[in-house]
Amino acid sequence: MPFDMNLVQRGARLRRSPFFDATQRYGARGYTVYNHMLFPIAFGDLEEEYWHLVNHVTLWDVAVERQVEITGPDAFAFTNLLTPRELAHCAVGQGKYVVITDESGGIINDPVLLRLGHNHFWLALADSDVLLWAKGVALNAGLRVEIREPDVSPLQLQGPKAKDVAIALFGERVRALRYYHFFEASLDGIPLVVTRTGWTAEIGYEIYLRDGSRGDDLWERIMAAGRAHQIRPTGPSDIRRIEAGILNWGADFNLENNVYEVGLERLVDDAKRTPYIGREALARIKAAGVARKLVGIEIAGPRIEFNAVKWPVDAAGETVGRVTSAIWSPRLDRNIGYAMVSIAHAALGAALRVDVPGAGARAATVVPMPFVDPSKEIPKQ
Amino acid sequence: MPFDMNLVQRGARLRRSPFFDATQRYGARGYTVYNHMLFPIAFGDLEEEYWHLVNHVTLWDVAVERQVEITGPDAFAFTNLLTPRELAHCAVGQGKYVVITDESGGIINDPVLLRLGHNHFWLALADSDVLLWAKGVALNAGLRVEIREPDVSPLQLQGPKAKDVAIALFGERVRALRYYHFFEASLDGIPLVVTRTGWTAEIGYEIYLRDGSRGDDLWERIMAAGRAHQIRPTGPSDIRRIEAGILNWGADFNLENNVYEVGLERLVDDAKRTPYIGREALARIKAAGVARKLVGIEIAGPRIEFNAVKWPVDAAGETVGRVTSAIWSPRLDRNIGYAMVSIAHAALGAALRVDVPGAGARAATVVPMPFVDPSKEIPKQ
C-alpha cells in the first residue's frame, strides 16, 4: 500500500516536532501521527535499528510525548487527584510512571510524571488529550491550578552506550542519576531537563528540550557527542519494547481497560491517603476480580508480520480474546506478543490458537513477561 | 518524501474505520490520522476529485468524525453547558454547528451537534478528544449524564447529484429534509441517521452508520445507488472547503483561538438564558475587541503548493501573522487561503506579503469570504 506523504503534509493540521527538519535531514522513512504531531517511525530497517539499540546507542524524536504542565498553589493536590499513585512519595527531582484514571477506573493515559517543584508537574503523554481531561476536571474542582501545554519536547537517548554519551554531554553528574530521577541542565544555552527513563528497558535517558526554536541545535549537539559511540537516529523499537513487556497505550490498552486487566496494579497505592478519581471503582474491580487479562504469548511457527487488525485468539474452538501486539524477536528467534483474553485462559501455559491473516491458525501459549529478563545474559548479534 | 504505509499499519494503535476495507478496495492513495483513526486522503488526483465534487457526486469516509454521545436525565442541561449556542432552539431531529469552549473562551472543537431526543445528543467531532473534556467536566457538575463514544461512523455524500442518490436510497422524504435536519432510516437492516450537512458547501448529506459491522454493506449499497450519477469515492476537498470559507480545526484555529478571532461569532447566542463554559471570558473578549483575526487572502502569482509550515505574513517589512490554509482554486484561477493577522492588517483590501518557501515573497490581499458565492453562477469545468 503506497502512501503519498506530500498529501499528509498538505495542510497545517498536523504539528511538526522541533526535530522535524533534523529527522528529514537524517532520512526518516516515514511518519505516523501521535498527539496531533508527525512522529518519525524509522530511518532504516527495523531489525537493524533494534540491533543498534541493544548494542550501541540510538537517538529517537519523541516530541510527540506532549506535556501537560500543572502549576499553581494547589498543583500538588490536583495532580494527586488524577492518579492512583501516592504523589507524596514523589520528591522534587523525581519522576513516576503513572496511570491517569477516569471515574470508572479506565485508563485515560499512562504518562511519565515529573515533579519539577512542590507545586509544579509535567505529564509526558501517550496519545490522548489529557490536557482536555485535566482542564475539564479542574473546572469545578475548587483548586487553584493552571494547566497548559508548555513548549517542551523530549528526545530519547537509549542503549548500552547511552550513559557514555550522556556523560560527554552533561558531565559526571550523570553517573549519580538514579532511575526515574532527573536534573535540569543547559547545553550551549539550550534549556533542558534530563531524566533517566525510556521506552526500551535498555540504559537510557530522555532529554526534554524547553525551547522549541533550538531543536536542530540540540539534535546536532547530541549526534556530535555520540559519534564516537556510533549513535544513529531511529524510530521506536517495537521489538525491544515488547521483549521488555512494555505496553503501548491505544494498542495494548485504553480507556476501556483498568490496571488489573493489564498488569499495572503496581501503579495503584492502596495506602494512598487522599481521594483520587476512580478510587471507588478500582476498589470494586479489585474485590470482584477481572473477567479478562492481558497476557504474554508466544506464537509458534515462522516469522509473522502483525498489522493493525487485532487477530482473534481461540481456545477449544471459541473466540476468547484478541492479540494486541505481536512481533518477531530476532534475539529470541520466535514470535512474541500480548493478547487480551478471558480470565479462564489467562494462566501461564494456557494453550491458545491465533488466527493469523494469510497464514492460518497458529498454536500460541501464555508465557511470563518480560520475554527478555534484563538480569540474564542474552546473546547479542 | 516517500512514506511506507506498512510501517504506519504495523501496530494496532491507530483505529480503522468500518469503511477501511472498502477504501482499500477502491484504491485510497493514502491515509492521514484523525481522532486516532486512519483517514483516507485521496483516491485520485486532488483536482479531479474537486471537479467531480462540484459537477457530480462523491462518497467520502468521515468515520473519523467520532461521536460523543450524551444521554441521561440531565443531558440537555449538560450539553447546553458545553456550548455558547442556545440549544433550547434545537429541536429533536435537528442539528447545529457549534463550538465547544473552555473557560477562557478557547475553541476545543467545532462539531456538528445532533439532537436525537430531548436528552440525547451526538457531537460529531473534529480532531480532539472531547470525550475526555466532557467526562472531566461532568465529574463535578452535579448533573446526571452518561457520556461515551458510541458505535457510529458517518459517510459524506456530496455534490449536485447527491440529492438524486439520497432519494434513490431513502425515498421521497429526502426532498423535505431541511439543511441541518435529519431523519433515522434503515437500509437492508442497516441502522442509519441521515443528515443534510457536509464540509463542501455543495448539496450534501451525511449518512451515520450505527453498526460498525455493516460498513462494507453500506458503502456498496451507496455506490450501487450512485452508479447512474457517476458517484466516486474521494478524500476531503480542501479546494472546495476553502472556496466556501469553511474552517479546519487544528489548522485554521484551535484551543488558542476564540470565535471572535476566527469569524465564528454567529455561534454565540448573546441571549442564551443559562450559564455555559466560557461565557464570562467571551463577554470580556467581545467588549475588549480582538488583537488578531483570521481573514481571507488572495496570494498573487502562479500556483502555490501549501505545506505544513504556516507561512509568515508581512506588512511594511514586519511579520504580522501566518497563513493557516492556502490552495490553488482551479475555478477561480488564483491562490486563495486564510491568514491569522494582527487586527491592524485585517481590513478588506489590506496589502500583505506572504513568504512562500522556495518561491520568494508574494503579494497578498485581504478579501471577503466565502471566495465562491453559492448564489452566483460560477463556470464549471
Describe this entry's structure for a reader.
2 copies of one chain form a homodimer. Chain A has helices at 5-8, 20-25, 46-55, 75-81, 130-139, 162-170, 215-226, 238-243, 259-262, 279-288, and strands spanning 2-4, 30-34, 37-42, 58-61, 67-71, 95-97, 100-101, 107-109, 112-117, 120-124, 146-148, 153-158, 182-187, 190-195, 204-209, 232-233, 292-299, 312-315, 318-329, 334-342, 351-356, 360-367. The first copy, chain A, has a 6-stranded mixed sheet. Chain A has a 6-stranded antiparallel β-barrel with strand order 17-20-19-18-21-22. In chain A, strands 6-9-10-5-11 form a 5-stranded antiparallel sheet. In chain A, a hairpin with a 5-residue loop joins strand 7 and strand 8. The longest helix of chain A is centred in the middle third of the chain and has 12 residues, at 215-226. In chain A, helix 6 packs across helix 7 (215-226). The mean pLDDT of chain A is 94. Chain A is α+β, with helices and mostly antiparallel strands and 381 residues long. Chain A folds into 3 domains: 5-65 and 151-241, Probable tRNA modification gtpase trme, domain 1 (Gyrase A, domain 2), CATH 3.30.1360; 67-148, Alpha-Beta Plaits; 242-367, Probable tRNA modification gtpase trme, domain 1 (Gyrase A, domain 2, 2-Layer Sandwich), CATH 3.30.1360. At the A-B interface, strand 1, helix 1, strand 2, strand 3 and helix 5 of A face strand 1, helix 1, strand 2, strand 3 and helix 5 of B.
